[in-house]
Structure formats: structure tokens, C-alpha cells
């Protein structure tokens, strides 16, 4: 049975993870380079077009945004990393927000790392995943914007990407492919979340 989203509502924005909602609920966060499609994916998954703010201009999301789904679990929209046209101090500040959240937020059950399915592996993403691995953070990879190229081009890019990861990793994390435009990948990601929602939260 596919998960049904009955309600999804914005709860709060924070720059500091310690001010995020205190209740212990499962929480799934979305991260990746600026403009990769995090906010669009959240809207696609929840079926609420204007829930997370999206923009064609990179750097839209600047805070940790909590959305409560079905009154039972959270989706979190995070700022993008690596936006070159921001000042160094802004980038450092955002990186601090992201890294403190990722390391400190005990409720975070899984981090979805988004990568543009059209791109070659980028150093900034590979390094970020490496850092997640070193810190034991559970994550999966989401290849976004698959509607922007042919299915065979997507297959080729993802295959090459996973090959690249296998140079450093013994085991691959779960992998999803999505198009927020076409609704591709929605059932797969929601199924995955539903499975994890059944597991107890660890302390
Ligand atoms: P920041 O918050 O700035 O870090 O960006 P973001 O990762 O949240 O990206 P956002 O969802 O705002 O999307 C960026 C742009 O990509 C917007 O113009 C979206 O319409 C477009 N976009 C996102 N996902 C898709 C997709 O699956 N297909 C297509 N064709 N466009 C997409
Ligand atoms: Mg965003």
C-alpha cells in the first residue's frame, strides 16, 4: 500500500538545530547543492505545490525548515551548500548550520542527499558524502531532474556516478531517481520513509 499524505504543514524555520521541534518524531532531511531541487522534491512528495519555497535562482532556502506530515513525522528542507556566488562568510555560516544540524539532530532518521542526474560527480558532493560516512550519518542518494534528459542518458550518468562512489565505498547507499516535474520517484521514497517510520527512534 502506498503511503497517503493526508496533511503536510509548515511548522518552523530555524538557524540553530537546538531550537528545532523538541518532540521525538522520525525526521527526514533533504540536502544538496543549491538549486538541485530539494524544495521542489519536498513539494512533489507531499503533493503540496507551495509548501517549500522554490526558486530558479540558487540560494533560496536559508534556514532549517520543518514540515509536519500526517501529524506524525517531519520533513526538513535544508539550505543548499556550495553556492559560489555567496560571500565566503555566508557560505561558512550556512555550512555551520547544516553541519551542526546533521551531527546534532538525533531525530534525523535519514538524510537524502540530492545530486543532479545530468551532472558528472562533483567534488563538493563526494566530499560531503565522505564526511557523512566518517560521521556515521545514515543517508541515501537522490538523482534529481531526470525529466531533463533521456532515460538512457540518466541510466548512463547514474551508472557512472555509482562506479565513482565504489572507488571509495565498499557498499552503496540506497539510490533513488526523481523528477519533481513528473512525479517520478515519489512512491519509492515514500515507501522507504514508511519502512523507516516503523522502526523505533534510537536514543
Ligand atoms: P536552494 O533552496 O536554492 O538550495 O534550491 P533547491 O535545491 O531547493 O531547488 P528548488 O527546488 O528551488 O529548484 C531549483 C530549480 O530547479 C527551480 O527552478 C525548479 O523548478 C527546478 N527543478 C527542481 N526539480 C526539478 C525537476 O525534477 N525537473 C525540472 N525540470 N526542474 C526542476
Ligand atoms: Mg530550496
- Multimeric organization: single chain
Approximately how much beta-strand content do the residues carry? 15-25%
End-to-end distance, in Å? 29 Å
Form type: globular
Can you describe this structure?
33% of the residues lie in helices and 21% in strands. Strands 1-3-4-2-5-6-7 form a seven-stranded mixed sheet, with helices on both faces. Strand 3 (64-69) and strand 4 form a beta hairpin. The mean pLDDT is 94. It has five helices and seven strands. Guanosine-5'-triphosphate (GTP) binds next to helix 1.
Describe how the helices and strands are arranged:
Blueprint: E1 8-14, E2 27-32, H1 38-46, E3 64-69, E4 73-77, H2 88-104, E5 108-116, H3 123-134, E6 139-144, H4 151-166, E7 175-177, H5 186-197
Parallel strand pairs: 2-4, 2-5, 5-6, 6-7
Antiparallel strand pairs: 1-3, 3-4
The structure holds guanosine-5'-triphosphate and magnesium ion (MG).
Amino acid at each position: 500500500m502506498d503511503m497517503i499524505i493526508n496533511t503536510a504543514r509548515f511548522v518552523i524555520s530555524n538557524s540553530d538545530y537546538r531550537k528545532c521541534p523538541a518532540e521525538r518524531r522520525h525526521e527526514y532531511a533533504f540536502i544538496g547543492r543549491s538549486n538541485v531541487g530539494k524544495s521542489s522534491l519536498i513539494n512533489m512528495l507531499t503533493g503540496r505545490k507551495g509548501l517549500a519555497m522554490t526558486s530558479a535562482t540558487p540560494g533560496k532556502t536559508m534556514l532549517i525548515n520543518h514540515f509536519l506530515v500526517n501529524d506524525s513525522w517531519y520533513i526538513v528542507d535544508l539550505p543548499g551548500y556550495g553556492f559560489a556566488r555567496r560571500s565566503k562568510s555566508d557560505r561558512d555560516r550556512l555550512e555551520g548550520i547544516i553541519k551542526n544540524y546533521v551531527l546534532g539532530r538525533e531525530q534525523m532518521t535519514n538524510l537524502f542527499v540530492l545530486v543532479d542526474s545530468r551532472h558528472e560527480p562533483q567534488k563538493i558532493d563526494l566530499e560531503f558524502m565522505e564526511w557523512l560516512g566518517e560521521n556515521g550519518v545514515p543517508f541515501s542518494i537522490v538523482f534529481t531532474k531526470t525529466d531533463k534528459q533521456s532515460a538512457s542518458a540518466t541510466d548512463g550518468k547514474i551508472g557512472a556516478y555509482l562506479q565513482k562512489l565504489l572507488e571509495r565505498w565498499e557498499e552503496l547507499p540506497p539510490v533513488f531517481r526523481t523528477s519533481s516535474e513528473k512525479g517520478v520517484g515519489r512512491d519509492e521514497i515514500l515507501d522507504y520513509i514508511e519502512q523507516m517510520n516503523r522502526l523505533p527512534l534510537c536514543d
